[in-house]
Amino acid sequence: MKIAGNATLHAPVEAVYAALKDPQVLVRTIPGCERLEQVGEDAYRMTVTAGVASVRGTYAGDVRLTDHRAPHGFVLRASGSGAPGTVSADVAVELAAGGDGTTVLTYDADAVVGGMIGGVGQRLLAGVARRTAGEFFAAVDQALT
């Protein structure tokens, strides 16, 4: 499943890049995040509660940031599993200076979903993923301002 989008954040590129790598910012801004623990250089273990339609559950997983092009982008690789199924995603994140000190963040994700959650339907899953991304970027923007 492919998901792409963008968001405008009200901070310079360097500040946005730093916030997206800061576990203290991420644990407060990722929707449903219950725990985020740094386990290595740019590597995290996390627990997230999420759901689509009536399929809800808690996922335990790993997140790794790779392919750094500081401060203009990186790739986030995430995988997790829980009672509702499995999720893995590679998300390319690009940051570019916008007008008036803003940053335009563009993301392009390729996700694979299995188990009960995978049976929900791609259109519904994609809609929930876009909404969740929007909530995350709004929370990051609020943390930056």
User: What separation lies between the terminal Cα atoms?
Assistant: 33 Å
Helix content: 25-40%
**Sheet bearing the most strands, described?**
7 strands, antiparallel
Question: Would you report the number of β strands?
Answer: 7
Low-pLDDT runs: none
Strand order of the largest sheet: 1-7-6-5-4-3-2
Radius of gyration: 15 Å
Task: Give the overall pLDDT as a whole number.
Answer: 94
What share of the residues does DSSP label as strand, in percent?
A: over 45%
Shape: globular
Number of helical segments with 4 or more residues: 3
The helix/strand class is alpha+beta
List SSEs in N-to-C order.
Answer: EHHEEEEEEH
Strand-helix topology:
Layout: E1 2-9, H1 13-20, H2 23-29, E2 33-40, E3 43-52, E4 55-66, E5 73-82, E6 85-97, E7 103-114, H3 122-144
Antiparallel strand pairs: 1-7, 2-3, 3-4, 4-5, 5-6, 6-7
